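hiii, so i know i said id send this last week but things got crazy w the move. better late than never?? heres the sequnce for the chain we talked about at the cafe, plus the structure i predicted for it. fair warning i was half asleep when i ran it
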Amino acid sequence: MPRINLLPWRAAERKQRQQQFGVWTVMAMGVAGLVTLLVYLAMQGAIESQREKNALLKSEIEKLDAQITEILGLEAQRARMRARMEVIEKLQRSRPEVVHLFDQLARTLPDGVYLTSVKQTEKRLELKGVAQSSTRVSALMRNIDASEWMENPELEVVESKKGQALGSDFTLFATQVGVQLPGEEEQQ
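okay and structure toks below
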């Protein structure tokens, strides 16, 4: 039987397989690098896209904050306007009361009594004046009590001054009453 030497053929085969292995390894590394690069680029694109969305959201939030600030300013202005309107309405409703109050003051003053000052704080009236006698002040208090525009007369002081021909100085407090006039509807 002849002897065939297969050693050079095996060495060539081994060398060829090593070369193929090297080529496949380099190709696999190249494909892995390419896939890694593509994934990296996709992630960077997604990150950049999200940054753009975040920037858009920030700008929209800033616009909305400005609108909210404007709305709050308008609401505060609206509240101030309503308060002014309520004050004006209250003054308009109370306008005839002053006329009636002065008319009633003139009607309640008995002879021998005259007023030197009238001061009103809210619904409280301070009446200062001069009376010929303390009985005239008592008559004024009874008249105020009977009045429909004033009530609760409280005498603070009556001073008789010697040498004063006109009589006694007095200070009297009363409360103004709001009377419902015909044609006025009840405010609530």
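btw The radius of gyration is 51 Å. thought thatd interest u
miss u guys!!
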